[in-house]
């Protein structure tokens, strides 16, 4: 999960937004509990399209 979250940040900063969104979604889906909540809330702020379809 941590690898996907880091990869998402790297891809976004490199200008590869679509790849970053893919990794962000995978990170949220791979996490549970508090980690999932924190990732979801962070991506709501910085990358809302990554979590709009995640429940």
Structural class: mainly alpha
Number of strands: 0
- Envelope shape: globular
Radius of gyration, Cα only, in angstroms? Answer: 10 Å
Average pLDDT score:
91
Could you walk me through the main structural features you see in this protein, from its secondary elements to its overall organization?
The protein is mainly α and 55 residues long. Helices cover 80% and strands 0% of the residues. It is built from four helices and no strands. It has helices at 2-13, 17-30, 33-46, 48-51. The chain is globular and about 30 Å long. The mean pLDDT is 91.
Overview in brief:
The chain has helices spanning 2-13, 17-30, 33-46, 48-51. The protein is mostly helical.
Notable traits:
globular; 55 residues; mainly alpha
Describe the SSE topology.
Elements lengths: L1 H12 L3 H14 L2 H14 L1 H4 L4
Helix pairs in contact: 1-2, 2-3
């Amino acid at each position: 999960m941590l690898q996907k979250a880091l990869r998402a940040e790297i891809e976004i900063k490199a200008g590869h937004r679509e790849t970053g969104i893919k990794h962000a979604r995978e990170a949220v889906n791979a996490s549970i509990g508090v980690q999932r909540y924190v990732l979801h809330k962070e991506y709501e702020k910085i990358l809302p399209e990554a979590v709009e379809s995640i429940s």
